[in-house]
Amino acid sequence: MSRMSEDFLESDLHCRPHAEDVGSRVAGQAAIKATKRSQHQRMNALPLDSSDSAARQPTSRSAWRRLQGYSFAVLSVAVALAMALLLDHFGFRDARVPLFICASAIGSWYGGPGPSVLAVVLSSFAFDYFFVPPLYTLYIAPWEIPYFVIFTLFTLLVSWFARIRRRVEENLRRTRDELESVNHELAKRSAAMEASNKELEAFAYSVSHDLRAPLRHVSGFAELLRSSAGPVLNEKSARYLAVVLEEANRMSSLIDDLLAFSRIGRAEAHYSSISLQEIVQEAVGEASQDINGRNIAWRVDALPEWYGDQSMLRLVVINLFSNAVKFTRTRSEPEIEIGCSERKNDHVVLFVRDNGVGFDMKYSNKLFGVFQRLHSRESFEGTGIGLATVQRIVHRHGGRVWAEGKVEGGATFYFSLSKLTGAN
Fold first, then answer.
1. pLDDT digits (tens, 9 = 90+) for 96-128
2. Which residue range(s) make up the domain with 8?
3. Measuring CA to CA, how many Å separate 45 from each of 41, 42, 48?
4. Torsion (CA) 127, 132, 137, 143 in degrees, nearest 10
5. What is the C-alpha to C-alpha distance for residues 138 and 153, in angstroms, rounded to an integer?
6. Is there a cis peptide before residue 47, judged by omega within 30 degrees of 0?
7. Which residues contact 148 (CB under 8 A, 6 or more apart)?
8. What gap in Å lies between CA 234 and CA 229, rounded to an integer?
């Protein structure tokens, strides 16, 4: 029994250090975890360095600006005091008050309201201490109080005006920067739009030019087919072949007009002083050659001298005259008139009026589109390019074009020209 007790005690002595070591390691690990947990909690409780520094930066910058403003106010008063003492030494005593007023105004201008008040207070004390008897004291006699009040009010008034002027200049500077930004953006968009228009014009020119060759082949082989197999074709086949040739010729006219339209946008304008009267007379003579003996009453009013590209404006008048001649075909007594409805120093408005079939005003927005027609091809021929060409040329001359009409009541086409665009 005693042997077993000794063995048990011996084993207990051997195991106790091990148990104590395990317990100490467990306690140590728990302490480490608690320490890490407390450190993590403290780190979470503190703001992040980056956000804290970012939050402190505007505050420190604002504080630095305020400190600069107050320092500048003190410096302004010190310079004014030094100059006043120097001038007083040489007998120029009338410069004291203006110098301190100027110092207060400068402090208000560059520092703001707080430095302005500081400059006024320092100027008043400096003036009283160095220049008001008894000297070198801040004592103010009762009879001198109104003068100090006037001086303070006048200085505050000057500072207030300086502050307002500074605010106005800051607003003007801000507005100027915004306008420059807007102008820059508009210039970028204008350049992008101009580049896009040039690309579209080049594309239209290329497509129109490339369509000529296959169209010539279609038309040529159709003509060969009609000449070689015409006698053996039945009536329906001959009509089909005639439709092919007619549509090929129409397609050729469309391509020619599209090429001419694209050339108008690509051509360089040569502005000079021109006679609108001579251009209209030439256009009347050219249009009269294609009226097939019709008795058209032409009326041309007095037109002014102007600035523009002569060949382009001649094309505008010819297209408008051709349009009027075409749509007065159904009239027994057609009348076409051109005149000037408005003339000013910088622009002029011309019109071409006829008594033709007219148009419905609700479709007036379609008149100047490419290939846009308000009448069927069977009634009136054309490709729908003429008025679009007129609009493009008028736009290049800084003007606009519009029309007024009534069904079976005639039509009037107006276009304006800008002298400033032509002069430039």
1. 778 887 887 777 777 767 777 788 788 888 887
2. 1-43
3. 6, 5, 9
4. -110
5. 19
6. no
7. 124, 128, 140
8. 10
Tokens 């037109």 belong to 303
Residues 313 and 363 in one domain: yes
Q: Kindly state whether residues 324 and 225 are assigned to the same domain.
A: no
Q: In this structure, which long-range contacts are made by residues 329-332, counting pairs with CB atoms below 8 Å and at least 24 apart in sequence?
A: 329/294, 329/356, 329/380, 330/356, 330/357, 331/355, 331/356
Among 266, 282, 313, which residue terminates a domain? 266
Whether residue 423 contacts residue 345, with contact meaning beta carbons closer than 8 Å, is answered with no
DSSP helix, strand, coil percent of the chain (3-state; round to 5):
70, 10, 20
**Whole-prediction pTM:** 0.51
Same domain assignment for residues 66 and 117: yes
Q: Are residues 260 and 279 in the same domain?
A: no
Q: With contact defined as beta carbons under 8 Å apart, do 405 and 350 qualify? A: no
Cβ contacts of 81 within 8 Å, gap of 6 or more: 100, 126, 130
Q: pLDDT of 301-350, one tens digit each?
A: 989 888 888 888 998 999 899 888 888 888 888 999 999 988 888 889 99
